[in-house]
Backbone:
């Protein structure tokens, strides 16, 4: 029974050895178990080896990803069973024959039991495992029941205490050793493993002390052996200690749970705590117990290798080898240990890195003398170093670097690896790095983990910089800050770091990794992520090289790329790294854009650069970023190709083909504007304004640098000539920047010296100052007309600026008086209006000046006219300059100021830029109160014009050729006829008839105008009574658009049409401002008549949807939904009646929903104006028009009216109810269509509801009116009840109407009159259909 007990104990012990599936270092580190709780599946082949190596370099957390693939329990080998039986024999001596018989008998019993239970084990592995456990439990239970009572008590007691007492009662004075601690060593809990290790070491130390004491006393301890005696060289150790050592060594080879971590920890502490253990004997024992035999395969071989590795690591970190050398300098244990480790590392590739780590751990515990005489003299290690570069062994290179660090000087052993003496400067040279390229390439075998060589190499790379920073901090703490700055400039290692970085990137990153396989490209990204966090901002450009950026862009441009996620991760990490560091963010943005010609986001399909740039808002880092962009723009030209030298003289048409080669400069200019716009920092805006002015408008004739004494700085230009395309972009962005400055009215720059603070004044001063420098000139030669216009605008701007300053002073004085209660509000308002005009006109001059430079010969006339307008608008300014050339503008018959101003503003719109249009709008808004009806008609004529050819063309007429081209119909004769009277009336009627005939195709019939003089839109091309010269003068801006009309057949029509559309949209913006300013004035009706006609024509002819929506929006917002509407003497009833008739006709026949909706809203608005301006006696024609529409609704099937429209009209205009109630009652009685009758009843019912829900005074006023129609209501009720509709829904409508009529009768207290008016048949029908409701009326 004791033998059986020992056999069971041996089986349990072996099972405990195999509980672990993860591996751990022998050090007492709690971090090694945090990642061990998650079990990872083990892959086969090279993937397993890579995973093992990935976890081996750091012993405390290495090999923790290993897991045994098949989870079957290893059977107890025959040798282990024999050892356990030998251990039991040592306590219960028997004869050899009896031992042999017992062993044979046990084997036979086990085989019989296996055969008996094999048939009952299912095929499923999980079920088979459960079945086997049940059989083992039954077997153990049977054996425990057959034990003697005394033995069973001991076993139960040991199970309760989680220990097995190994010493019999005869030797109770010897300390006991609890075998159960081995079970706790494989637990996943770190605290439990450490507690088990502590208990194990404590008990073994006590056992060893007792053993040594027994030996001194001469006592025998043969009865205490736990296994058979073996010749292992551990004769000085107690049997329990020898057993524990074997058990610990076997345990580190187990791949279950945390067995390797726990057993390696126990082995380390045991070896370090008990000096009786000999190192050489332990090495032999490790080789003996973990020897790989030829019968082992796969996982078993791997477990043995890793077990030896962990055992060697435990021995190295225990400190025993270093201790032996200290006691005996001639000891060969170090060399034997090194050779054993190297020999093991040569077995498998994944063992090299952890083996090198073990040697480093040992070297750290040894003095330098021992390294030179013992470690480096190991034969296998020497061979390793000699063949490192040939074999491409990165682990040996890492080992050599770490050993070199611990040595006091250079050793010849490493002479083949790097030049002597060893230093970062010598290591990071092109020659040294080239010799080590083979080692660097082979570090990819452990991916996705980065090999330990790279972090160590990065530490060496930055060692001088970090050492220098520490020295600077020490110096600053001792000396003054000025001295430290001088030392920093004198001894700055950043230049050396840049050289080393360039060599490293050129040889290793670009030459070895990026130009090789995908794995090595991935490794290059990982290595750079180690470098980037430690880089100063001044060194980033050395790492983000052109080849790296191109490789990154190539990968990111294709989502299906194998490295797409790796490149994305790399880019994301860099963005996160520089997110909160302005200098680094600037360096990264500049590098990304510089190497991709400003197209990184476009090619890579990301928003990286956009997001990084967007972070430069109000941040102070915005200023250095602008400086970096300017430097990049100026330096970029130096790297341009030789073909860029003669670009300055190229025409703009030829520039388009070269746009792609200047995309970086395009991006810089665009980015400068966006930064200045978003930041709103005045310093940034000032720098951007200066840069765009210099690069867009000027060029230096002598060199690229010019010193300006007035600006107190050097003005720079790129070395290569700036193309016309870039200059045009600079000028366009300059216009946008000035437009933004105009929007932020009141902002001022920080002035230095003579520099003005007002932005507009600063620009004009800068322009004039730079033009006066002899070696600087404008980028193009101006014509005499442009030069004259430029001088006039500059002079006028200076005078207006002086006037603006004086008005500001007056404004401040008036505001102070107003605070004191003595101010004049009218005067203050007048000053403010004048300031608005001056400010708006001044910025319009600036924008127009840039247009003159940008488009030579096109805007000089408009500029001269605008200067004349400024002189006339501000003629009260007492200055001789304003009276110059007065004879040209004040002669008799000269046009009115606002006519010239409006014509000039309109002439600027067709080809002007967005900022110029904004400036035009500001001027128009400032002078809007002075604009009269003729000026409004000029704008409306532009909106009304189309590209269709003239209806009356005269063949073979050279004089009319321009008219044909422009497509403008001349109607001077018609206009004169309008003034004469009847002829004009007849002509207007003829034109209206033409329109009606054309509109009949779409079912829209516009009413005829009875009086052309009262209907300004009666004439298609009303010119406001202007003669030919005046009309053509105002049409000059149209000629700019229609000049390509002859080429429409050749494909130019689309361009012309788009230009005309843009022109109309810009004029509509001015018109919207006008309508907003003149809301509630009769002139609004004129704008309405033109706009509504344009919408109807566009809808009928399929015109531009954009233009239709724009005009409809203006009508809705600025006319129909305004609180104020036209009132006064200027509103004429005939005009309103004509508009109303047309809107009702359009609403009745139009098939387009937007037109119908607009017509209905126009009807509501017109009825509101009619009600507010005229009495009921004047509205007879209005009633007839509306009655005609109702008649059309009831009788004409083509009518598209809905009853809801009339209900809304009656709700808004209750006065129409009184006028049309009788007419609707008549239609209810006489309409043949049952559907139309029900619709009419619905309208009448709504009228009745209005009376029922009205106020008491309203009800009393309607009493006599309803009483007059009471008989008609009674007849209608009788007719409806006698012949009810067939459909149930329509009968419901009839019932609802009748009940509503009864309620009105009750509300108005006309019960008696109603009953008298009812005929007997109707009375009976009401009584039968309505019951209680009718009874209430009767009562």
Residues:
């Amino acid at each position: 029974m004791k033998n059986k007990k020992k056999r069971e104990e041996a089986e349990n012990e072996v099972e405990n050895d195999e509980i672990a599936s993860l591996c751990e270092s022998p050090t007492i580190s709690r971090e090694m178990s945090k990642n061990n709780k998650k079990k990872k599946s083990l892959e086969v082949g090279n993937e397993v080896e890579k995973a093992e190596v990935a976890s081996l370099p750091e012993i405390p957390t290495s090999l923790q990803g290993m897991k045994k693939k098949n989870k079957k329990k290893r059977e107890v080998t025959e040798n282990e069973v024999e050892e356990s039986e030998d251990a039991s024999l040592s306590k219960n001596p028997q004869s050899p024959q009896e031992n042999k018989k017992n062993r044979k008998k046990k084997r036979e019993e086990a085989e019989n039991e296996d055969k008996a239970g094999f048939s009952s084990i299912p095929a499923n592995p999980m079920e088979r495992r459960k079945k086997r456990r049940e059989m083992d439990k039954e077997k153990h239970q049977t054996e425990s029941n057959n034990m003697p009572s005394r033995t069973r008590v001991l076993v139960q007691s040991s199970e309760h205490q989680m220990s097995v007492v190994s010493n019999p009662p005869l030797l109770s004075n010897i300390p006991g050793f609890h075998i159960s601690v081995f079970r706790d060593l494989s637990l996943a809990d770190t605290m439990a493993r450490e507690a088990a290790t502590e208990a194990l070491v404590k008990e073994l130390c006590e056992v060893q002390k007792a053993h040594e004491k027994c030996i001194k006393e001469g006592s025998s301890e043969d009865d205490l052996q736990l296994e058979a005696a073996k010749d292992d060289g551990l004769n000085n150790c107690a049997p329990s200690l020898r057993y524990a050592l074997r058990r610990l060594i076997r345990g580190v080879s187990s791949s279950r749970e945390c067995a390797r971590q726990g057993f390696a920890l126990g082995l380390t502490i045991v070896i370090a705590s008990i000096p009786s253990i000999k190192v050489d004997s332990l090495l032999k024992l490790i080789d003996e117990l973990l020897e790989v035999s030829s019968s082992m395969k796969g996982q078993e071989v791997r477990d043995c290798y890793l077990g030896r590795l962990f055992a060697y690591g435990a021995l190295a970190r225990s400190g025993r080898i270093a201790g032996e050398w200290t006691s005996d300098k001639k000891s060969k244990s170090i060399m034997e240990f090194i050779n054993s480790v190297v020999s093991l590392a040569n077995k498998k590739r994944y063992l090299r890195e952890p083996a090198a780590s073990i040697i480093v751990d040992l070297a750290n515990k040894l003095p330098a003398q021992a390294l030179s005489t013992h470690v480096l003299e190991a034969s296998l290690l020497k061979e390793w170093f000699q063949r490192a570069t040939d074999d491409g062994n990165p682990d040996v290179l890492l080992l050599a670097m770490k050993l070199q660090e611990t040595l006091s000087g250079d050793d010849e052993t490493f002479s083949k690896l790097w030049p002597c003496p060893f230093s970062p400067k010598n290591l990071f040279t092109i020659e040294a790095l080239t010799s080590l390229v083979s080692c660097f390439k082979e570090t990819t075998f452990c991916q996705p983990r980065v090999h330990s060589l790279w972090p160590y190499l990065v530490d060496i790379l930055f060692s001088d910089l970090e050492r220098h920073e520490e020295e600077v901090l020490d110096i600053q703490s001792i000396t003054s800050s000025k001295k430290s700055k001088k030392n920093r400039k004198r001894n700055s290692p950043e230049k050396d770091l840049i050289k080393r970085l360039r060599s490293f990137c050129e040889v290793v990153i670009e030459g070895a990794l990026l130009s090789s396989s995908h794995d090595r490209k991935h490794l290059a990204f990982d290595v750079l992520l180690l470098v980037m966090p430690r880089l100063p901002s001044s060194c980033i450009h050395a790492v983000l090289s052109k080849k790296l950026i191109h490789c990154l862009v190539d990968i990111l441009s294709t989502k299906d790329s194998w490295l797409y996620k790796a490149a994305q991760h790399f880019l994301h990490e860099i963005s996160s790294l520089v997110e909160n560091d302005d200098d680094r963010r600037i360096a990264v943005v500049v590098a990304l854009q510089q190497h991709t010609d400003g197209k990184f986001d476009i090619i890579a399909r990301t928003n990286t650069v956009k997001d990084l740039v967007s972070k430069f808002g109000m941040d102070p880092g915005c200023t250095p970023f602008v400086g970096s962009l300017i430097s990049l723009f100026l330096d970029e030209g130096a790297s341009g190709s030789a073909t860029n030298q003669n670009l300055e003289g190229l025409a703009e048409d030829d520039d388009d083909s070269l746009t792609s080669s200047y995309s970086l400069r395009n991006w810089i200019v665009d980015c400068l504007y966006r930064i200045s716009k978003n930041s709103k920092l005045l310093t940034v805006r000032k720098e951007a304004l200066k840069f765009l002015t210099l690069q867009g408008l000027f060029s230096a004739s002598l060199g690229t640098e010019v010193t300006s004494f007035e600006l107190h700085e050097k003005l720079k230009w790129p070395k290569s000539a700036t193309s016309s395309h870039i200059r045009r972009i600079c000028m366009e962005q300059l216009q946008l920047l000035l437009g933004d400055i105009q929007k932020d009215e009141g902002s001022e720059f920080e002035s230095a010296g003579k520099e003005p603070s007002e932005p507009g004044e600063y620009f004009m001063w800068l322009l004039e100052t730079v033009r006066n420098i002899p070696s600087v000139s404008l980028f193009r030669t101006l014509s005499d007309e442009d030069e004259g216009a430029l001088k006039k605008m500059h002079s006028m701007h200076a005078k207006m600026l002086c006037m603006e300053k004086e008005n500001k002073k007056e404004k401040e004085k008036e505001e102070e008086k107003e605070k004191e209660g003595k101010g004049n509000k009218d005067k203050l308002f007048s000053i403010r209006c004048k300031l608005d005009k001056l400010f708006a006109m001044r910025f319009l001059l600036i924008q127009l000046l840039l247009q003159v430079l940008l488009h030579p010969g096109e805007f000089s006339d408009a500029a001269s006219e605008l200067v004349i307008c400024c002189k006339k608008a501000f003629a009260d300014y007492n200055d001789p300059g304003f009276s110059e050339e007065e004879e040209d503008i004040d002669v008799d018959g000269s046009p009115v100021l606002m006519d010239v101003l409006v014509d000039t503003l309109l002439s600027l719109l067709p080809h002007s830029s967005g900022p110029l249009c904004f400036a035009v709008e500001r001027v128009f808004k400032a002078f809007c109160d002075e604009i009269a009806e003729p000026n409004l008609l000029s704008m409306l004529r532009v909106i009304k014009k189309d590209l269709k050819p003239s209806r009356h063309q005269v063949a073979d007429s050279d004089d009319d050729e321009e008219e044909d081209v422009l497509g403008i119909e001349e109607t001077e004769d018609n206009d004169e006829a309008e003034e004469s009277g009847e002829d004009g009336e007849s002509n207007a009627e003829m034109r209206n008839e033409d329109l009606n005939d054309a509109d009949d195709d779409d079912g829209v019939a516009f009413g005829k105008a009875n009086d052309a003089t009262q209907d300004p839109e009666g004439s298609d091309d009303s010119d406001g009574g202007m003669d030919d010269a005046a009309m053509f003068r105002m049409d000059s801006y149209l000629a700019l658009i229609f000049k390509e009309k002859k080429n429409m057949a050749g494909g130019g029509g689309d361009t012309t049409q788009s230009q005309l559309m843009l022109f109309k949209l810009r004029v509509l913006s001015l018109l919207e401002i006008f309508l907003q300013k003149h809301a509630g004035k009769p002139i609004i009706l004129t704008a309405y008549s033109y706009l509504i006609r344009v919408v109807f024509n566009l809808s009928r002819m399929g015109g531009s949807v954009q233009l239709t929506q724009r005009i409809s929006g203006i009508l809705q917002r600025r006319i129909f939904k305004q609180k104020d509407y036209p009132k006064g003497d200027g509103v004429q009833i005939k005009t309103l009646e004509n508009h109303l008739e047309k809107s009702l006709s359009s609403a009745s026949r139009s098939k387009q929903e937007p037109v119908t909706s607009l017509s209905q809203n126009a009807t509501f608005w017109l009825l509101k104006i009619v009600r507010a301006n005229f009495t009921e006696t004047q509205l007879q024609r209005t009633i007839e028009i509306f009655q005609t529409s109702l008649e059309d609704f009831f009788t004409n099937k083509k009518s598209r009216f809905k009853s809801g429209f009339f209900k809304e009209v009656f709700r808004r205009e209750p006065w129409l109810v009184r006028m049309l109630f009788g007419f609707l009652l008549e239609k209810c009685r006489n309409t043949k269509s049952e559907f139309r009758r029900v619709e009419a009843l619905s309208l009448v019912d709504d009228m009745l509801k209005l009376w029922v829900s009205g106020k008491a005074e309203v009800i009393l006023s309607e009493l006599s009116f309803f009483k007059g129609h009471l008989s008609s209501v009674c007849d209608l009720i009788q007719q409806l009840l006698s012949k009810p509709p067939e459909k149930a829904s329509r009968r419901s409508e009839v019932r609802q109407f009748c009940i509503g009529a009864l309620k009105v009768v009750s509300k108005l207290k006309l019960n008696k009159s109603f009953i008298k008016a009812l005929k007997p048949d109707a009375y009976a029908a009401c009584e039968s259909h309505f019951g209680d409701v009718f009874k209430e009326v009767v009562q």
About this structure: Residues 571 and 608 are 8 Å apart (CA to CA).
